[in-house]
Amino acid sequence: MTELDCEQILQLVWQFLDGEIDETRYLEIEAHVAACADCGPRYQFQRRLLALVEMKCREGPIPTELKRKLFRLLEE
Amino acid sequence: MGAAIVASQIAPIAADDRERFQALAEEHLDSLFRAALRLTRNRTRAEDLLQETFLRAWRSFHTFKPGTNARAWLYKILMNAYIDGYRKATREPDIVDQEDVDEFYLYTKVQESDDFRRAGDPEEVLLSRLMDADVKGALDSLPDVFREVVILADIEGFSYKEIAELLGIPIGTVMSRLHRGRRQLQVKLWEYAKRAHYVRAAKPPAESGGR
User: Fold this and answer.
1) What is the CATH classification number for the domain harbouring A10?
2) Following CA atoms B6, B12, B14, B15 in sequence, which dihedral angle do they give, to the nearest 10 degrees?
3) Which ipTM did the prediction report?
């Protein structure tokens, strides 16, 4: 398997972050972004961006009244 | 009398089913409600969608195989109810992606911005400036077909394969929609970040007053 260059690494960053990459490639990308001054910051930024989206879209638990309403439907 | 006997015979089974369903649903209600909020972008519609999902799930509970993935089963019902009743466009919008928008749009913008660079750690400044409402607003602005994939991947944490199954589309389509959705999300986030930055920068310092 030939080694990936920076451009190829960057094309795979989303898949890498999504855990959608086979193990050999995964290790290669992990090592590359840890060492590369160009890819590293880009990778770190994308990682933080995904974490931000997840965090900012969190919601509290479902309102108790709504939950009660749902469970009452089962008794009809 | 015959009916009473039948009722008493089936009642314990029904009650048992109801308890099992209740326990199974309860575990996923918070995340289903969160997904419904983001999908419908509206609290009332989200409650309606959740109720529809809950009823559909209860009605087809007999088809659920214990031990299989309950979360995937419930989300499949949620997405079907959403697609049936809430989603407008089913085709990908014919818009052509902007040429200068790539996967690293936001990173590039912040690196190129003198305003942000002056701050020392421009990425940190940018990310810390984005509020809940900015991220939700940016997500809400995406076309439905991109939005739903981003919600399922980035908020609900489903794999490409699971999303393909939930939406009944090929994995390649999931990936292209997710990538396009994330690119558009970054364009929108950059608008919000710039606005927030401008508002702050334009505010006169308290000492000098506004006169």
Assistant:
1) 1.10.10
2) 140
3) 0.95
